[in-house]
Amino acid sequence: MNTTSDSNAGSSLSSGSGYSIYKSYLENSRIDMQGEDANLYVARALRLVIENVLAQLSTTLVVTISTRHLGTAHWFEYMMNILMDSWRMVAVQLLRIRPDLVVNPVPGRKRVSLLMVDSYQGLLDTNITASNANFDDPDYYFIFLQARDHLIPKELQLILDHCLAHFWLHCNVMIQTAQVEVLVYTYYPYTADACQKAYPIPVNTFDGRKWKASQMFPDKLSQMHGCPLTVLTWHQPPFVELVWDPKHNRSRGSGFEIQLVEHLARRMNFSLELVNIALLRPNAYRLAEGSSEGPIEKLLQRNVNISMGYFRKTARRNQLLTTPMSYYSANLVAVLQLERYRIGSLALLVFPFELSVWMLLLLALLIHLGIHLPSARRGNEEDGGGGLQVVALLLGAALARLPRSWRHRFIAAHWLWASIPLRISYQSLLFHLIRLQLYNTPSFSLDQLLAEGFQGICTANTQRLLLEMPQLARDPDSIQSVDTPFDWDVLNVLTRNRNRKIFAVANQDVTLSFLHSSAHPNAFHVVKQPVNVEYAGMYMPKHSFLYEKMDDDIRRLDASGFIHAWRRASFASVHRKEQVHMTSRRYINHAKLSGIYMVMAGLYLLAGLLFAGEVLLRQRN
Q: Under a CB-based contact definition with an 8 Å cutoff, are residues 548 and 169 in contact?
């Protein structure tokens, strides 16, 4: 009995110990939350998502388990063990965030994420919003929410609201009900019933073998149901031209960029709400960061959806905001008045001959003067005027009286015939050069202009772009801003200041338009070496879900040539508006002939002096 009794006691003790061990295992693993067949059912659904959807998006996958309940954390880890046994296709980064572990979220980009959470608070614990907030390219979130059925609607709505608030466009939430139904929900930010709302919409169901819908992440922006997008812009022709429409009591836009965004609106079916921001004085308003009412600040505060209007891209702006492909690029060029390089009248008189020719001519003149001056000092009148006769023959004047000596006659004839080709060559070259409006070689780079002491002028927005260049950052006073937001006005300032050593820095397309419309297009010189290259585009709030769709559409329009055609037409319209009539242009410009007038006046003055000298000598003799 005792033995039997001891044996029974040992059996009871053994059974109790085994039950305790099993109970502890269940509590730690939580596989008793549901049957093993249900666990395998969910694991198959997850495996198909990973293999057929997530693995196609990226070669790496970030799996994050974040729960507030320890038992659910054990169950998620048990599910991962099942998955790992049946799937080894891509590299996995596994992050575990549990209430019994103090874990700092791993920073870094997480483009494709599988999140296993038991509540909205568990999603917040992952801190994945901060990890992806500074990236522009789209990311994908597949969230597995495991919660009691009566808690699922509330938690699901909170998660989808979080997705909408942080621009998670590709955001799916998978749930499993008590009846072992595996469903996937998502949201559409723009629907026929509401705009900017995150109502749960079922998109897929697992039937035990496959997902019923082939597309797990649907296109949500191809049809925006006329929802309004706020476009912050300003008057900057030909990119954006704003005209007040009194009939509808609002601003009406036109121009190259307005055409582009209107095409996108028709393609994606959204409406436009234009918000005009006034371009104030450069000292009071800045297009860059720093002004509380500037476009960058409004985008950072997410008060507007898009901002554009010849909005130039910079590294700082790209860091703060999201921008799709640049649809406009052009050089910034330096423009100056050619008047600064015009050869003066006195210099032009010397220009036709080289120095060696002038030296030989001077030597010949001195020889002839040396021949005639001795006889003039002896009072001999046979040379007919002495040294003045030599100068008169060189200038082509007739002799008042032939010298008596045959020696002097031969020398005079030789001097006259030798000077004829010189006079013909000199006069023809001189008048030809005057007609060409000869200039010295202008500068061909920004560094040369600065070395020559030129002062640059531009708009305030262009000035900030230029001050990022090393040669201007070292001397910021070498470039000054003009109180205007338009390059056209800067070029007009250059026109009104002909006598100052200044040059304008302006957009190349605007400069060509200005020169084409100017009454004196040849009076300006565009420096061959560009100052810088600028890119313009539309800006959106950081991580905006509009980025992917608009970037794709803009690339398609650019590849098909539409953007180039719209841009060319917009600049052509500016040419027609600003171009002066041909009747206002003079075919003979007296300013261009001023050099000829000065030369002729100088020659007449010299001839008059020679004539007066001959008269005085005649009276004296």
A: yes
